[in-house]
Specification:
globular, 166 residues, alpha+beta, single chain, Nuclear Transport Factor 2, Chain: A
Length: 166
C-alpha cells in the first residue's frame, strides 16, 4: 500500500500539463507580444496590441502622467481636451463594449525629433466592431507629441490630437 501511494504521488508530481505550458521569462523576446518602448516603433506596436487585446494595462503604460487628448467637436466648432484619467475611463468603456478592434498604422506624415521630444503625425485606420451589424471605420491622423526622460528612456505619449473622420 505504501509503495502504491509513493508511486501515485510520483506520477502526479512528475506530470507535465500540456494545457499549462511553462512561463516564458524572456523580456521582449521573439515570442513576446509587446515591444520595448525605448523606440517609437515599439510604442506604436504596444498601442496596436493594447487595442487588439483590449488591454487597459498596456494602454495606460503608453501615456505620460500629464497626458492631454484633443479632438475637434465639429457640432460646437471647438476643440475638446481631456486628461489621462478621462482617456483611460473612456477607452476602458470602449474596450468593454466592443467585440473587436483592428488598428493599422500607415505612413508617417511628419516627424520632428530631438533627443527627448518628438512630434509625430501618423495616418491610421481603425475598425471597431461592436457586433456584426454595428461596425465603425475610422480613418485619419494621430498627431502625437512623444516624450522621454532620458536618451535611453521609454517614449510616452504626452499629447495626442485626433484628426480623424469620427
Amino acid at each position: 500500500m505504501k509503495i502504491q501511494i509513493i508511486f501515485i504521488c510520483t506520477v502526479f508530481l512528475s506530470c507535465v500539463n500540456p494545457f499549462a505550458p511553462r512561463l516564458d521569462l524572456n523580456d521582449f523576446g521573439s515570442s513576446s507580444i509587446l515591444s520595448d518602448q525605448k523606440t517609437v516603433e515599439g510604442l506604436l506596436h504596444n498601442f496596436r496590441q493594447s487595442y487588439l487585446f483590449k488591454d487597459t494595462t498596456v494602454y495606460g503604460k503608453l501615456f505620460s502622467p500629464d497626458f492631454i487628448f484633443i479632438f475637434r467637436d465639429y457640432e460646437k466648432n471647438t476643440d475638446v481636451f481631456w486628461s489621462r484619467d478621462e482617456e483611460m475611463r473612456t477607452t476602458y468603456g470602449l474596450f468593454q463594449n466592443s467585440q473587436r478592434f483592428d488598428l493599422t498604422w500607415n505612413q508617417t506624415i511628419s516627424s520632428h525629433e530631438d533627443s527627448l521630444l518628438m512630434q509625430l503625425t501618423k495616418s491610421f485606420n481603425l475598425t471597431v466592431t461592436f457586433n456584426p451589424s454595428d461596425v465603425i471605420r475610422i480613418n485619419g491622423y494621430a498627431n502625437f507629441t512623444l516624450a522621454r526622460n532620458s536618451m535611453d528612456g521609454e517614449w510616452h505619449i504626452l499629447r495626442w490630437r485626433d484628426e480623424s473622420n469620427f
